[in-house]
Amino acid sequence: MNVEAVECGLVEVLADVQSMMRSRALDKGIDFTLEYATSIPERVVTDPTRLRQILMNLVGNAIKFTDAGGVRVVVHFEQLAALEPEAGPREISPTLGSLLIEVIDTGVGISIEQQRMLFQPLPRRIFPRPAGLVERDWAFRSRGD
Fold first, then answer.
1. I want to staple 47 with a disulfide (CB 3.0 to 4.6 A). Which of 4, 52, 56, 121 is the partner?
2. Which residues lie below 8 Å from residue 96, measured CB to CB, with a gap of 6+?
3. With a threshold of 0.85, does the pTM exceed it?
4. What is the distance between the alpha carbons of residues 4 and 44, in angstroms, rounded to a whole number?
């Protein structure tokens, strides 16, 4: 899997997710909202395809497991202080920041035990290198169902 780092319009990515998922929520009779808790940059450097895919999965699952109430996507952006080599006060950088996208729902949730199973570090495994190819480092998780 290749991950890109390209400049893209964050609002457009979020609007795509909103337009695709709103009808699913309406079909179930639940609310779906996209909220901007802070101002966000017009352009970000990310993999827009992967970001859209992750959000579609998270929002899709939130809608799937919510029978009443609704699903909210809340977007936050915090500008980071620029790191200057000389001593002195740090200035806020318009280009560096931390983006937080929350998917909040009123669904049944999952138990603490299930959370522990879901949110654990992935073991790393090095697969043997095929002749003539560069060795790749793959992260995987075996569930043993």
1. 4
2. 79, 80, 82
3. no
4. 12
| Residue 80 CB contacts under 8 Å (≥ 6 apart), including other chains | 92, 93, 96, 97, 98
pLDDT number for residue 46? 87
What is the separation of C-alpha 53 from the centre of its chain, rounded to a whole number of angstroms? Answer: 9
**Phi then psi dihedrals of residue 41, to 5 deg:** -70, 150
Average pLDDT by consecutive 10-residue portion of the chain (145 residues)?
83 95 96 95 89 93 94 91 57 71 90 76 48 36 33
In angstroms, the CA 73 to CA 76 distance is 10
Strands (E) in the chain, as ranges, are 6-9, 31-36, 43-46, 70-81, 92-105, 124-126, 137-139
Predicted pLDDT of residue 4: 82
As a whole number of angstroms, the distance between CA 43 and CA 97 comes to 12
Q: How far is CA 62 from CA 28, 52, 107, 111, in A?
A: 12, 15, 7, 15
**Which residue segments constitute the domains of the chain, with CATH numbers given?**
6-110 (3.30.565.10)
